[in-house]
Every structure is written in C-alpha cells, then in structure tokens.
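pipeline/complex-builder :: batch 7 item 3
reading input block
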Amino acid sequence: MDVRLTAEQRQLRDAAARLASDLGPGSVLDLDDRHRIARLEKAVEATGWRNLRSDGASGVEVALVVEEFGRGLVDVPFLGPVLADDLRRQVGSTVPAATIAVGSSARDAHGMRHALTLDGDRVLSTEVGPRAPGADLTRHNAALRDASEPIGTLPPELAERWRVLALVATCADLVGTARGAHTLARDHAKIREQYGRTIGSYQAVAHLLAEGLALIEGSVSVLRHAAWAVDELTPAEALRAARIAKLYCARAARTVCETAVQVHGGIGNTWECLAHVHLRRALVSTELFPVRLEEIDCGLS
Amino acid sequence: MDFRDSPEEAAFRDRLRDWLAERAGTFPTSGDEYWARQGEWHRALHAAGFFGLSWPERYGGHELPPVYDVILDEELARAGTPPRPSLGYLVQGLGRHGGEELCRRFLPGMIDGTERWCQGFSEPGAGSDLASLTTTATRDGDAYVVQGHKIWTSYSDVADWCLLLARTDPDVPRHKGISAFVVSMHQPGIEQRPLKMMSGVTKEFGQVLFDGARVPADQMVGAPGEGWALAMTVVGHEREPATLGFSARYGKLVRQLAARTKGSAPPPELAWAAVEAEMLRLHVRRRLSEQLDGVSHGPEGSLDKLLMTWAEQAVGHAALAVGGTEDPELLNAYLYSRAQSVMGGTSQIQKNIIASRILGLGD
C-alpha cells in the first residue's frame, strides 16, 4: 500500500494550481472581466486537460485538476468537458465543444455547442441552447435544443464507471472550492482587527477555521481513494467509495464555506465578498449527481 | 498510487488471519474483563510475532513499515479479537529521549509485554496545561524522591513501571524545570486509587499518589529539564490514529450495528457513522504513506486527532440510535466515546494547536 501521488501527478496538480491562481477570478468584480476570461479560456484550452481521459489519464489526475480549478474558482468550462470527453472517447465520437447535460439542462456550458448525456447505457448528444439561470456564478447552465441524437452505446460496466468518474469529479470540485473558501477566510482573519487584535487570535474564530482545515484533510483522504477507485476497483466497489466521498466532501464543503461567510462578518454576507461564490459553487456541485445518506452501505468492508 | 496490499503485505495478512482464526472468541474485547486480560493478550500477540511490528528489532520489534500496524488492526477487528495494546507513544517517548542503556533495559520488556507500563503525566491541577504540574522529584544522594498526585494514569493498578514527569527545578521557567523518570510501581510510597468512568469501567484509569517513592538517578530519561521534550513526543503520538489503531474498531462497531438493523432502514446516524469510519480508515492510510516521505510528526497530528474524535463520536451516536438506552453494551460504547474529545489533549487544545501552528492565527 502506497497512496502517495506520483511525481508526475504532483507536477500536474502544481501546474493546474498555477493556472487557476494566475487567471481565475480574484474578486467578484473579476467575474465580469471578459478579457481575463478569454485569457483563461485560451490557457485552459492550450493545456489539453479537457481531453485528459482521451489522453489516458486516470481518475486521480482528473480529480487533481478539477480540485485545483475549484479552489481557484476557474470560470470557464472544465468539469463538464472532461466528463464529456470520457463519454466521447468510449463511443468513438468526435462531437466538438461538448459538455454534459443533466435532465434538460446543459452544465458548465459557457461557449459549449453540444451536451452529452448518459441515458442508461446510451450516449446522447444535444445542441446547447441559450444560457439558463443557475446559482453558480462560475459555471453556466444552458437550455438544450429539442432533438437529441444517439451517438453510441456503452457496455454496462463502462457506463457504471463513467457515473463513478462523474461523482468523483464533483467531489474534487467540492474539496477545491472548500480549500479556496478556507484560505480566503484565514487570510481575512489574519488582517481584520477588532478590539485591537486580529480576529483570528480569538479562539471563537480560530476554532472554526481549525475545524474547517480538519474537514478538508478528511475530504482529501476520501477523495483520493474514490479517485483511485474509478479505474482500479470493480464498478460496484468504486461506486461505494464515490458515494462515501461525495457525502463527506459535500457536508465538509458546505460547513467550510459557511464558516468563510461567518468569518467575514457583515461583508461576508454581501455580493462583493467571494465567500458566497465558493458557497454557491459548492452547493451546485453537491446537487450535480447527488448522493443520499440512504444510499450508504453500512456493512462496508 | 495503490490502496491495495503489496504481495508482502498480503502474505503477512494471510499469516495473521490464520493465526487469529484459531483464537477468535478466546479473549474478552470490552469492559473490565478486557482490561483485566489485556497483558495476556499483548504477550500472546508478541510471542506469535505480531506485535511491535514497526519498532527496532534489537528491542524485540520487527522493523516493518508502519502500514503493517494498519493491517494488524484491521485483522484484529475482523477476527473479533481484542485490539492492539496502545503502547506506541510510550515506546516513542522512551526510545527517542532515553539513552542507549535505558532503552536496552526497558524497551524489550515494554514491547514483549512482560513488564507493564503506565504514564504519569496529568495531575488534578495540570490537565490541558500540563506544564503547570506540581509533582516534585528531589535529589537525595543517588536517587530522587517523588511527591505528588497523578491522575488518568491508564492501567496504573497493573503497571510495573511508570514513565513519570516531575518538577526537578522550581527556579527556572516552568517548561524547563520538568524531568522524566522511569519509576518502579512496586515500592512503598505509592498509593493507587481506581477511577470509575461514567461507562462503569474501573480498570482503565487510575490515580496514583506518590509520597516518598524513590527512583535511582540513572533512571532519569534524558538530562534534567528535558522532560517537556519527551512529553511533547508522547502526546504527539498519543494523538495519532495510526499509533492508536482505533479506526478499525469503529468500522467493526458500524458493521455490528448494521447487522442489528438488518431488514429495516438504518438510522441516518448509522449511515453517517459508516461514512466517518471509512473516512478515518482512508485518512490513516494517506498519513502513513506520507510518512514514507519522511514527513515527521508535527502539528498535523492534531488534525488527525480531531478527525478520529469526530469519527468515534459519530459511531457513539449511531450506537445510541440503534440500541437506545436499553442495550448496556451499546450505551457504554456511546458513553465511552465522549472521552475521546478529552483524552490525549482536548479537542479545544487540538484546535488551538492547529490555529496557531498550522494556520498561523495568533497575536
């Protein structure tokens, strides 16, 4: 047993972290900066990471990039396209500019022309329509046009694995956005002063942030296992690992993001504070491929 | 990255499984019966080559990577035998801070279970604030004379030796005046008072009153004033889920609870406990792997302790949800779980350590 990241995986993570830090939004105002978004889009496209699975990457590598992009609130499509790529490669399709859709809604759809869904074992492609409302300020939803076209069929085992990969990708986004929110709150607690001292020096505030860090560490541990399981365990085992990870990461991310709002005080409840951008992203990633407590197998091995 | 056993690890697991299969059900696993026969279990494990796995061979260990302890813990839980005796923090404390002579004299007996140990750190007036301890050791010829009152001294009533912290110099700043000793528990001047915990267990914790007990000067661990460094090593390891090996126990209790709810929907507390127990199992694996890079035991141990506490208390709540107050064993599992946020450093102290030493939040 050795569950360390390889040197290549660490390099990939660091490169994704740098890209997200350099070009992701540093403020709520930045969300409207079209020039920044264009530069970010160009940079992400140039990495080729949207085709990670086609290039033979494991679930672990996909999760590392998704996590760093979540941390940096990367606001061009990634999670959708990287999942669509995995469907496309398996059915040998070349549908361009594809993201995924859930129900009648394309997700992570900014600038995307097609949305793929897995319906049972059938992969369907639908044209993406106009932008639709959504809580997430960093990833857009879009309507779907009427006619969807079947582009292939997956063997049941591969369909199951894709669902696991999708769950794991949302877990990774949750861990990332929680880490970003936590850093935002910690940095604020170090400079904001009340009663003549930084608020982080008060136990009442410090303990919230300490709990948040522990939740993040636990999340990373379940995420790593679930991401590894995508390719290495049976689909049933991998699904069990992903469900556990999803429940843990979702609960942790909501708590950490709520803490970030609280630590920012009044400002944390305003539109201008990035805390709610993290919180919204976490809530949307929780609802995307949701898991309920009733689905947990308590007789786990 | 691989969460599976290597071929060597799998072979070890198989050997262990065979050995355990012959002993299932022969040792009590909880309550006072467990504590009463813990020493016997310890010696049996060691004699079969399954204890002290990651410790030095010259002291009776096997010098295997720490992951073998995880395999041991998992298989003990699976077989329904008692858990691995928790000694790692004492071995680390003595091994890192004691000289070669003390280690050679005391570690083999500690590891093989022929000599039993307790830890004399906490006092009625020195809990979280351990450095305020007032037990004194005063030089008298070639010995020290000990006066003071220790509490939460695990297994003190059956111990042969006590790893004791006492103040040897009252005139220096308080962290610097503390020394550590190996004190014989078989001598006049030592009075034992058992503590009955709220779960009813009486054999785990005790109070020890030292009134004129003597310890030879050459049984001081390290130099005068180095007791605080030893204390930090010991409490650091006392916080570690990997050292303690508790995570496998939580998984086991979750499975037992699940078996009792078969046929009806498990309560949400149980499902959440399953998630927490699995989280801790995986977290321990990640931490042990990080140790392969030489990452040492720092303040991160406090994160692990918090995660372990949350897992144990989630399992405690699940036991209560399944058994209510009607089932004495499950009620005791719940009551016992409340101690986890106190023992080995309270959750509040862990959060202080995380905040100041990892997050850099301070004045």
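note: The radius of gyration of chain B is 21 Å.
queue -> next item
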